[in-house]
Amino acid sequence: xxxxxxxxxxxxxxxxxxxxxxxxxxxxxxxxxxxxxxxxxxxxxxxxxxxxxxxxxxxxxxxxxxxxxxxxxxxxxxxxxxxxxxxxxxxxxxxxxxxxxxxxxxxxxxxxxxxxxxxxxxxxxxxxxxxxxxxxxxxxxxxxxxxxxxxxxxxxxxxxxxxxxxxxxxxxxxxxxxxxxxxxxxxxxxxxxxxxxxxxxxxxxxxxxxxxxxxxxxxxxxxxxxxxxxxx
Length: 232
Ligand SMILES: C[S@@+](CC[C@H](N)C(=O)[O-])C[C@H]1O[C@@H](n2cnc3c(N)ncnc32)[C@H](O)[C@@H]1O
Hints:
Structural class: alpha/beta
Bound molecules: S-adenosylmethionine
Oligomer: single chain
Low-confidence stretches: none
Number of strands: 7
Mean pLDDT: 95
Shape: globular
Largest sheet: 7 strands, mixed
Order of helices and strands: HHEHEHEHEHEHEHE
Strand order of the largest sheet: 3-2-1-4-5-7-6
């Protein structure tokens, strides 16, 4: 079962290395206009569902990227699919700053940023409104006692399943064998069908390799790509 917002813990990193002057500039000048309003508890204490129809200038499919890291995949998808609207979620400030730099360079306008925990976004999305979700190289939490912190656990997956449309696609990329095992165990139970499972060199046609994938390849770990569809 999903936990009430006030009892949730977030175990990941929020701050990293000292930000460069250019990154501070992005955060100070660009984030406010890209930050999706009405997501945080401070912004929306009553947790009123967002009015999806007003998010983008024209009606369009809505996609979500969980934990966009440095933002390479998010910006790539936004540029490749200008007719789609994408919300990227990431609490790690250095990653957000990297994303903002890439948005300036690419000039994409069809995305929103939630600089925080994706669960806060799921709470305020209407039921069955999301067409695609990307989970690229989620934090592996390798110790067995920390596996319950993984995204592919019932608390996260119940929130995810509620907001996805029947037939919507959920993509998971990971380099951790045990994460594959847990994903294959938990995601179908949450209401999804596995439709594709591939390995190195067999990513999705529109895939762009991420920083964490590059790190995994350098360190000799092989990528796994899993595709699920929300049951309808
Ligand atoms: C291992 S990194 C991968 C980053 C990127 N997707 C990539 O492939 O390079 C996992 C990211 O997920 C983010 N993350 C972890 N829990 C999250 C949550 N509850 N909501 C949003 N992002 C989260 C972390 O902050 C981290 O940046």
